[in-house]
Design goal:
Largest sheet: 9 strands, antiparallel
Structural class: alpha+beta
Distance between the termini: 39 Å
Amino acid sequence: MSYLKFDKSLMINLEQSLPKEMLRTNKSGAYHCTTIVGCNTRKQHGLLVIPIPEMDDKAHVLLSSLDETVIQHGAPFNLGLHQYGDGVFSPNGHKYIRQYECESVPTVTYRVGGVIFTKEKVFISHENRILIKYTLVEAHSPTTLQFRPFLAFRNANDLCIENGAINTAVNNVRNGVSTCLYDGYPSLYMQFSKQPEWVNNGHWYKGVEYYKDKDRGIPYKEDLWVPGYFQIPIRKGESIIFSASTFETDPDKFFETYEEELKTRTCRTSFYNCLKNSAKQFYLKNKYGTYIMAGYPWYNVRARDELMALPGCTLAIDHKDDYEVIMDTFLKALGRWLNDGIKDKTIGEIDLPDIPLWTIWTIQQFRRSTSTAECCEKYGEAVKWLVEEVRNGKVSNLRLDNNGLVSSNGADSPVTWLSASVDGKPLIPRTGYILEFNALWYNALRFLISLYENEPSEQDYLDGIRALADKVKASFVSTFLNDYGYLYDYVNGTYTDLEVRPNMAIAIGMEYSPLDRRQRKKVLDLITRELLTPKGLRSLSPKSYAYRPSYVGDPIQREYAVHQGPARPWLFGFYADAYFKVFGVSGVGFIERMLIGYEDEMTEGCIGSLSELYDGNPPYTGRGAVSTAKNVGEILRTLKNVKELNKLQTLETEESK
């Protein structure tokens, strides 16, 4: 039985099926994303959405959707589904769906009278190309399929309105047609595995609505161009394949390509396999290197997100080679920035002050998956280099003070992951001594010491690092640990921020924490009481007057709410690390129970993945980007840690017998 399977009763109920989305990517920046019933509910949805580097660094929707129509005895049954004004859906093709399952590839089963056929979709890796396989399972009379392509040719964050600037020309290619609506765009090639009939019948479908955008208080209506339709007969037991791409392909190889692509799929038959599949969707390879996308459908590569996601999205799924390739790309980019002031063309926000510190943490996770010797050989010099960059004041907006702590100016623009701003001004002006920056700094120093502690030639150098680490530890405790037993979120001069925020989990979840076990436990208890939810840690305690649990409303309202209560799954990774440090293997059972909350999300939101954030109050609805790398990565890393601790517990039990 498929792990991701939805029956007729759910599919035909739009209140239940429309919120469920699916995502496929080509690992080169292109994607296909829509709802499980095929009705686009966001402007970023589309059947073929691709980056066009020649135009900008954004994704562009070429083929919005493809409506299928079954014709028997001259009667058409349109299987498409679009939303128009006043909540009207047409042509209501969802009522013919009998089943949706997504074990290896998204597969929809339709029944129209005596006709039963399936539709399977595969996005080709590293090509701007999607294949859709149609199989006629049952039919008692001659059957014909019609296909109407809905074209957008626009930036994924914009909308298309009827205009006279489009190029309506359609060119014949083998087993299909090609078209390009606007200058600067690549042509869209639409082909079949056997020759179809093309009927030129271009017109606009006006007033298509996207209710997710409407709910977000942003423009939500557009017009889509349909240049005509394909018509092709199909026999019982026959399969045909439709290809949409930015280049002409050989129809004779469609089935071969389809089968080869299937072999690369991770079957989503478990919680772990769903997240593993999702993790690989974030991989991005272009001419500059290999990266981790921050999320879909509207994020590109962001330095901090990539570093947080990298261990879970590679090492936790036994993709060590991918870790090394991605880290190699990142370290070269970071070197160009720190040494020459040149920002990377692909990685955004690499100039933020905490990026070198997160880089060291990410390398530290490599050691946990390998060994100290291997990590030191491969990345030891990089860790030493980054520590020295901080010590020598070469990291922009990261100052090492006499007390050993590092400080940053975040009053004028956001410098931490709590980056909400209005008119360029941070809503949470974390400035001065920032909690997680200094926890990462102490951890980095102790990690560097541990890498070289058995190297006689490094001992004089390490003596200086040890003295600095001791100073940082004492200053950290006296600066951040308050009389209530938890940690200030940031300290700026005489101002101490008392808000209860999840950055405490990062501080106590580090492998090397400035706090002792008793202090960590007291902080952990507070986090558990006030911040822990089944979907991650709240970004602010409900006891705060500023608490806003739901990420809803127009853009300004959402900006005010985004870091004032909604929960983030990625923070649970640090919470789990802290929990294991306090309770050891005896804490495994509790963490396993908490992981059930994330497994529940595999059939919600973007199926098989995790949303960007969740409401801080029940029912903890998913919001924001439908699939986010650092959330997936940190839950995968936690699953791996749980597995290793369970193995350790089993060994200890066997040895005690």
